[in-house]
Design goal:
heterodimer; A: 382 residues; mainly alpha; Formate dehydrogenase/DMSO reductase fold; two-stranded antiparallel ribbon; 14 helices; 1% strand; globular; B: 323 residues; alpha/beta; Alpha-Beta Plaits; 2 domains; five-stranded mixed beta sheet; three-stranded mixed beta sheet; 8 helices; elongated; binds iron/sulfur cluster
C-alpha cells in the first residue's frame, strides 16, 4: 500500500488566511493589467521588455521548481531508491511552481489570446530558443500533472486507474527528466541573443545553457532539502536529515563544476578585471559568488552536512545564489543602452508576490488533504 | 549495474546524435536584391520631415510636446513612432558635426539587419526576412506578444503597444507592409522621399555601399553634389561641403551588417550605437540551440535512452516501492 498520507489538521489557519489576502491583492492588479494593458501595471518600456514577471515568475520560479526534476534524476536515473519518500512532496511543489510559471508567462504575454500560435506547426521557428522553452515548459506541466495523478487516484481509491498508469509511468518519468534538462538550459540560452545588453560577467555566450542547467539542478536539490525541513518543522515531523545530507553531497559536485566553469570562462575571456572593479556589477557578482561558495564550504564538512540547521543554511544560500544569478543576468545588470531604465512598480511587484503566495497556499492545503508526504519512519515498510 | 546501464544508454545517445549535431552557422549573407537606406548624419539638419512623413505613411498620430505643433516631438521609438531624429549635443554645442562642443542628428529606425536578431528569436515566425529584398516584416496574426524581439534586437527597435490591452508590436517595415507596399510599387521609402537634404537616401544595399565608400574618399572641405531621394535616379541634388567623416560605414559589418547604413562625423558610440562585434548574436544563439538539440533528433534519442534506464530502475525497486 501507499506509504504517503495526508497530514490532516485544520484548513483555515492564520497563515492560510494571510496568504489568501496577499494572493487576492495580486489578482486585483492582474485584473487591471487585462483591462488597461501591460503599461498600466508594469514599468516595462521600449528597451526593457521583460520585467520581474518574466524574470521571477518564469525564469527563477521554474528553477526553484526543479525539485521534482533533481529528485527524479536521483531516484530513477541513478537508482537511489532510498530517496523515494521525498518524491511526492517534491513533485507537488514542482507542479505548482511550473504551473504558476506558465501562468506568469501567460499574463505577461502581450497578446495572450493568441498564445495558441506557438503550438501551430506552421508558425514554429526552430531557430528560436523561446519556442523550445514555450513548448517544453508546456509539455512538462502536463507530465508533472500525470506524475502527480497517482496522488489523486490514491485519494479517490481508483486502484484500477492507478495500476494502468503505473504500467506506462516510466515513460512520463523519463520525459520528466528530459524536458527540464532541455528547457532549463534553454532559459539560459535566451541570454545569448541579447548579446551586449547582458553584462560581460554574465554573458558567457556558448556556456549559458550549461551554467543555467547546473544552477537549476543545485536549486532543485536545495529546494528539496529546504521544503522537507520546512514541512517537517511546520508539521512537527521526524526530520529526514540523513536522507537530505546525501542530497547535500550531490550539490557539492554540481557546485564545484559550476564554479570552475564560471571562473575559467571569466579568466579566459579576460574579464577578471571586471570582477575586481568594485562597481555595482562587481559587487553583485561577488555577492552572488559568496552565496555559491558558502554552501560548498558547509557541505564539504561531513559533520555540518549531517546537522539539520547547517544543511538548511546551505540550501537557503544555494537558492539565493541561483536566484541572484538569474536576477543579475536578466535584470539587475541588464543594460540595453542609454536612455532606458527599469524599476518595477508596486503593483507589478504585488502581482509576483501574489503568485508566490498562491503557490505556497495551494501547497499547504494539498499536503493537508492529499497523501503527499511520507508517513513516519516506524510505520514505513522499509 | 544500474550505473553501467545509465552510462551505456547515455553513451549510445551521444554517439547517435553526434553525427547529426548541427554545425554553428556563420552570419547570414545579404539578400540578393537587398534594399535599404543610407543615413548621412552630416547632411541631416534635424527638420524631422522624415518623422512626420513616416507617421503619415503608417497612419500614426504625431507626438506633441507643449506648443511644438508643426514638428513631431517624439523622443524615442514607441508603439506609435517608428522613426525618430535624435540630437547629439556636447559642451557649447555650436559646431555641427563635431564631437567636442558640437552637435549633430542621428536617425533611429529599424536597421533591417542582414542577420536579424528579431527574426531569430521570434518563436512564432511573426518577424520575417524577405528572401529577395531583405526587408524585415511583421505579421501580427502570428504574434503572441512575448517581446523577445525587443530583447533580441541590438537596436531595441520592435516596440510593443503597452498602453493598449490588445496591443501589438510596431516597427518600420521599410514602407512595404500590406496596404502600403511602396517598395513593391517601385516607390522609395517615405522618409527618404521627404528628406530635403539627401541625409536619408534610398537604394539597394550594394548601390548605397558604393555611394558611402565614395563619400569616405572625399576630402573634408571640398564641395560634393549629394543625391536626394533614390540613389539610382535622384529627384534632386544638394551641394554641400564635405564634413570630416569617421572612416567607418555603420552597418557594413556590425553583427552581420544591416541594410540601413549610417555615416557620421561624430563617433558612432557617442550617437548611441551599440557595441557590436561582427559575429551576429543570432548566429551564436542558433548554433548553440541546434548543437544542443540538433533539431529533434537528440531529444528523441535521449528519451529512448532515459526510458530504458528508468524502466529498469522502476522495475528493480518494485519490491520496496509502489511506483
Ligand atoms: S522606411 Fe517608412 S516606416 Fe521605415 S522609417 Fe522610413 S518612413 Fe518610417
Ligand atoms: S534593427 Fe532590430 S528590428 Fe530591425 S531588423 Fe535588426 S533586429 Fe530586427
Ligand atoms: S512579440 Fe511577437 S513578434 Fe516579437 S518575438 Fe514575440 S511573438 Fe515574435
Amino acid at each position: 500500500m501507499s506509504n504517503y498520507q495526508p497530514t490532516g489538521g485544520r484548513l483555515l489557519t492564520l497563515p492560510v488566511v494571510l496568504l489568501a489576502v496577499i494572493a487576492g491583492i495580486g489578482l486585483y492588479y492582474l485584473g487591471l493589467r487585462f483591462v488597461h494593458g501591460l503599461g498600466a501595471v508594469t514599468q516595462l518600456n521600449g528597451a526593457h521588455a521583460w520585467g520581474i514577471w518574466v524574470v521571477y515568475d518564469v525564469v527563477i520560479g521554474t528553477a526553484l521548481a526543479c525539485g521534482g526534476y533533481a529528485l527524479a534524476i536521483t531516484v530513477y536515473v541513478l537508482n537511489k531508491g532510498q530517496y523515494h519518500p521525498l518524491m511526492r512532496g517534491a513533485l507537488t511543489a514542482s507542479l505548482f511552481g511550473y504551473a504558476l510559471g506558465g501562468l506568469g508567462a501567460f499574463v505577461d504575454m502581450g497578446r495572450w489570446w493568441a498564445f495558441y500560435n506557438i503550438f501551430l506547426p506552421w508558425n514554429m521557428n526552430f531557430n528560436s530558443v523561446m519556442l523550445e522553452v514555450g513548448l517544453c515548459v508546456s509539455a512538462y506541466i502536463l507530465v508533472l500533472f500525470i506524475e502527480f495523478s497517482p496522488v489523486l487516484f490514491d485519494k479517490m481509491g481508483a486502484q484500477k486507474l492507478r495500476n494502468a498508469l503505473n504500467k506506462v509511468l516510466f515513460l512520463f518519468i523519463a520525459l520528466g527528466v528530459l524536458l527540464p534538462t532541455m528547457h532549463q538550459s534553454s532559459l539560459g540560452s535566451l541570454l545569448i541573443a541579447m548579446g551586449y545588453k547582458v553584462a560581460p560577467l554574465w554573458q558567457s555566450l556558448h556556456l549559458q545553457p550549461l551554467l543555467a542547467l547546473l544552477t537549476a539542478l543545485t536549486m532543485g536539490f536545495s529546494i528539496v532539502i529546504f521544503e522537507a525541513s520546512l514541512v517537517n518543522s511546520a508539521f512537527r515531523r521526524h526530520e529526514e536529515t540523513p536522507l537530505l545530507s546525501g542530497l547535500g553531497k550531490a550539490i557539492v559536485g554540481l557546485l564545484t563544476v559550476y564554479l570552475v566553469i564560471r571562473f575559467v570562462e571569466i579568466i579566459l575571456r579576460d574579464k577578471l578585471g571586471l570582477v575586481l572593479a568594485f562597481d555595482m556589477n562587481s559587487v553583485l557578482f561577488l555577492l552572488e559568488t559568496a552565496l555559491f561558495v558558502l554552501p560548498l564550504i558547509v557541505l564539504l564538512s561531513p559533520a555540518k552536512r549531517r546537522n539539520g540547521r547547517w544543511l538548511l543554511t546551505a540550501a537557503l544560500s544555494m537558492l539565493l545564489a541561483g536566484t541572484l544569478y538569474r536576477f543579475n543576468a536578466f535584470l539587475f545588470t541588464f543594460n540595453p543602452g542609454p536612455g532606458y531604465s527599469y524599476f518595477p512598480s508596486a503593483p507589478e511587484v504585488m502581482v509576483t508576490i501574489g503568485i508566490i503566495a498562491l503557490e505556497i497556499l495551494v501547497y499547504l492545503l494539498f499536503v493537508k488533504i492529499l497523501p503527499i508526504l511520507p508517513v513516519e519512519e516506524k510505520q514505513q515498510s522499509h | 549495474m544500474k550505473r553501467r546501464d545509465f552510462l551505456k544508454a547515455t553513451g549510445a545517445t551521444l554517439l547517435g546524435s553526434a553525427s547529426s549535431v548541427a554545425q554553428a552557422r556563420p552570419n547570414l549573407e545579404p539578400a540578393p536584391e537587398a534594399v535599404g537606406m543610407l543615413f548621412d548624419s552630416t547632411l541631416c539638419v534635424g527638420c524631422k520631415a522624415c518623422v512626420s512623413k513616416c507617421k503619415e505613411v503608417n497612419g500614426m498620430p504625431p507626438v506633441i510636446e507643449g506648443d511644438a505643433v508643426q514638428y513631431d516631438s517624439a523622443r524615442d521609438l514607441s508603439g506609435d513612432t517608428l522613426n525618430v531624429i535624435k540630437l547629439y549635443q556636447n559642451g557649447q554645442a555650436n559646431q555641427k558635426d563635431q564631437e567636442v562642443d558640437g552637435f549633430c542628428f542621428e536617425k533611429r529606425s529599424c536597421m533591417h539587419c542582414v542577420d536579424p536578431g528579431c527574426v531569430s528569436v521570434c518563436p512564432v515566425t511573426a518577424l520575417r526576412r524577405h528572401p529577395k529584398t531583405g526587408i524585415i516584416s511583421y505579421h501580427v496574426d502570428a504574434c503572441i506578444g512575448c517581446r523577445n524581439c525587443t530583447m533580441g534586437c541590438p537596436y531595441n527597435v520592435p516596440q510593443f503597444e503597452y498602453d493598449n490591452p490588445f496591443g501589438q508590436i510596431r516597427k518600420c517595415e521599410m514602407c512595404n507592409q500590406a496596404g502600403v507596399e511602396r517598395i513593391d510599387q517601385g516607390q522609395m521609402t517615405g522618409c527618404a522621399e521627404a528628406c530635403p537634404t539627401g541625409a536619408t537616401l534610398f537604394g539597394t544595399r550594394n548601390e548605397l555601399l558604393i555611394e558611402a565608400k565614395r563619400r569616405l574618399t572625399l576630402k573634408p572641405g571640398d564641395i560634393y553634389n549629394y543625391p536626394c531621394g533614390d540613389v539610382n535616379h535622384p529627384d534632386s541634388w544638394h551641394e554641400q561641403e564635405v564634413a570630416a567623416y569617421q572612416p567607418h560605414i555603420w552597418g557594413e559589418k556590425e553583427a552581420g551588417g544591416t541594410n540601413v547604413l549610417h555615416l557620421s562625423a561624430v563617433p558612432f558610440d557617442k550617437l548611441g550605437m551599440p557595441p557590436l562585434p561582427e559575429r551576429s548574436y543570432a548566429s551564436i544563439s542558433e548554433g548553440v540551440q541546434h548543437t544542443l538539440y540538433s533539431y529533434l533528433a537528440l531529444p528523441a534519442a535521449a528519451l529512448v535512452g532515459l526510458s530504458y534506464v528508468v524502466h529498469r530502475n522502476t522495475r528493480d525497486s518494485e519490491g520496496d516501492s509502489d511506483e
